[in-house]
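sry for the spam today, last one i promise. struct tokens for design, 367 residues
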């Protein structure tokens, strides 16, 4: 008997978007003999990625113009066994669909790094690194289902360029890079990065996705307060994906943000040959780097204190030969890891689906 899984996504997830790199491999690898996948899409900007994802689904529902009650009725009419939310409390979410409990089993996954707080949400999909057993369970109203290796499975876009030579070999200086959203640039991180820049002679910091004007002026002033001259900073405005990927050719070492680590940003940097130094905390959003880097055997790039973060980044900055090797080896490391094992990841995910469904069936039989 096949299990019918519904995936409810917001406007950004089923198009050219960071989330699509984690959704597409799952849809592609699902066992059609055991699982039917229904996608409920609010995507407004239809593109080639949307077309690929639609072709992979058993059934595609366009719910852009449907209200929450109508979507819930649609899910019931489709007889969905397990309904998966990709959005949590992000803008434009459809949690009121889940509040109506249109599917017997409901799960949160991927797009929101915390509990939904909803009694109607039965489970959350995660892994044992971002959510250590015992320690993390109390932070969620959902029951945690832990995938065996990582909560992510990454399919790199085919148009991503090959890693080039280490930029420092050409420029003669180390370029650190901040590639996450500027909203993640907290005063704590600016102070820490300032210490790093000042301790690595001749280094500079490239900061992506910062628009001209007030935002750059504010960040420049923050760094100046810690003694970092403005000419040490290289700001880049938000840009199209192809240009953003090309920007990695200028970066020797990427610096992960804290307390909100990168996810897709980290995967892209690693695939493009740029090692990422991450700082891990206690909660999921500050342990993404630990999960991803552990998955490719580079947990030594993860710090647990600010001083350790500085030490790792400084040491790496002085190891040009190792940086060059990493730049050429990271893509193969990822290919050989569970992070890109689409079939293995999806079989493990399906096992969690099947177990949750069987448990619900057992409860119904004994009710």
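last one done:
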């Amino acid at each position: 008997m096949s299990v019918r899984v519904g995936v409810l996504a917001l406007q950004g997830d089923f198009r050219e978007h960071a989330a699509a790199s984690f959704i597409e491999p799952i849809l592609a690898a699902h066992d059609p003999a055991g699982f039917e996948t229904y996608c409920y899409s609010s995507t407004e900007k239809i593109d080639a990625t949307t077309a690929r994802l639609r072709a992979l689904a058993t059934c595609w529902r366009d719910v852009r113009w449907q209200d929450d009650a109508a979507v819930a009725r649609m899910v019931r009419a489709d007889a969905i066994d397990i309904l998966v939310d990709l959005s949590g409390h992000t803008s434009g979410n459809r949690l009121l669909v889940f509040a109506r409990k249109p599917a017997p089993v409901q799960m949160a996954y991927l797009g929101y790094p915390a509990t939904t707080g909803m009694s109607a949400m039965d489970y959350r999909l995660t892994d044992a690194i971002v959510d250590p057993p015992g320690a993390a369970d109390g932070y969620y109203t959902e029951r945690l289902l832990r995938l065996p290796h990582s909560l992510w499975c990454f399919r790199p876009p085919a148009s991503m360029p090959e890693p080039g030579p280490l930029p420092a070999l050409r420029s003669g200086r180390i370029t650190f890079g901040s590639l996450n959203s500027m909203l993640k640039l907290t005063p704590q991180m600016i102070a820490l990065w300032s210490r790093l820049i000042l301790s690595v002679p001749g280094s500079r910091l490239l900061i992506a996705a910062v628009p001209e004007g007030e935002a750059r002026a504010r960040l420049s002033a923050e760094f100046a307060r810690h003694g970092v001259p403005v000419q040490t900073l290289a700001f880049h405005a938000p840009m199209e994906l192809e240009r953003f990927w090309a920007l990695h050719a200028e970066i020797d070492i990427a610096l992960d943000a804290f307390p909100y680590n990168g996810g897709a940003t980290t995967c892209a940097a690693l695939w493009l040959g740029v090692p990422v130094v991450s700082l891990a905390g206690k909660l999921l959003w500050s342990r993404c780097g630990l999960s991803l880097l552990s998955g490719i055997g580079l947990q030594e790039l993860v710090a647990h204190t600010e001083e350790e973060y500085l030490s790792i980044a400084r040491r790496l900055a002085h190891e040009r030969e190792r940086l060059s090797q990493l730049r050429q080896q990271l893509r193969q490391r990822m290919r050989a890891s569970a992070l890109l094992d689409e079939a293995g990841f999806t079989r493990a995910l399906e096992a969690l689906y099947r177990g949750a469904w069987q448990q619900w069936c057992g409860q119904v039989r004994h009710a």
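The mean pLDDT is 94. ok im logging off now
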